[in-house]
Amino acid sequence: MLHIRSAEYRGGHRLRLTFSDGAEGDVDLSAYLDGPVFVPLRDPAIFAAVTVDPELHTVTWPNGADFAPEFLRELLGSDVAAA
Fold first, then answer.
1. Backbone phi and psi for residue 63, each to the nearest 5 degrees, phi listed first
2. Which of 9, 10, 41, 50 could pair with 14 as two cysteines, CB 3.0-4.6 Å apart?
3. In angstroms, rounded to a whole number, what is the distance separating the alpha carbons of residues 83 and 74?
4. pLDDT tens digits, the chain, 83 residues: what are they?
5. Could you give the CA distance from residue 63 to residue 77 in angstroms, rounded to a whole number?
6. What is the model's pTM?
7. Cα–Cα–Cα angle for 16, 17, 22, nearest 5°?
8. Domain 4-76 sits in which CATH superfamily?
């Protein structure tokens, strides 16, 4: 099962992610912030409050928003170098 090991806010709506499969890279989530739970994340100050949930093993925000690790990994593409 794929997990997020770490997440770092990189400005705007970008995150630097490290995955349990060794891949790491930046993802821009600006195009995916639709729907009631994601609209508040359009504010970069709120987006910057990202954490990695210790039980879900993915990125989460205080308002309950999260993205599946598999979706985030797909955003990196298959040619991302493993760390």
1. -85, 0
2. 10
3. 17
4. 999 999 999 999 999 999 999 999 999 999 999 999 999 999 999 999 999 999 999 999 999 999 999 999 999 975 454 44
5. 28
6. 0.89
7. 135
8. NE0471-like N-terminal domain (3.30.2020.10)
